[in-house]
Amino acid sequence: MAPLVRTGDLIDSRTMTNILFICGKARKRSPTAAAVAAEHLGQPTDFAGLSADADERVGAEHLAWADTIAVMEKAQLSRLKRQMGASLKGKHLSALISRTASSSCSPSSSTS
Predict the structure, then answer these.
(1) Confidence of residue 100 (pLDDT cuts 50, 70, 90)
(2) How would residue 109 be classed by pLDDT, with cut points 50, 70 and 90?
(3) Helix%, strand%, coil% for the chain, nearest 5
(4) Predicted model pTM
(5) CA 100 distance to own-chain centroid
(6) pLDDT at residue 19 above 90?
(7) 95: which strand partners?
(8) Which of 20, 29, 109 is CA-nearest to residue 66?
(9) What backbone phi and psi angles, to 5 degrees, belong to 66?
(10) Residue of 66, 63, 69 lying closest to 17 (CA atoms)
């Protein structure tokens, strides 16, 4: 089986140890992504949500644990930066889907 990711992709399993997946409510996307990544990458993963009614609300302890933070949408990455900006320093951040006016999707990443 080919590796899930290669060097230069959004998540490099050789250099990232703890991966946190974030979506809105932590009910479907981030738990699924965390489970798949843990199985395929063999890395510790966790998940959380940004919404007040999220099943597992993102907190400072999640961010302190994570080396890489993968957010489902670019808009959610902006929201995370607004809400928890000080806790993101030195973290590798990725938005897995970038929605544009043409509704096409593409990945994007940055380092805080």
Answers:
(1) low
(2) low
(3) 30, 30, 40
(4) 0.77
(5) 19
(6) yes
(7) 71, 108
(8) 20
(9) -80, 140
(10) 66
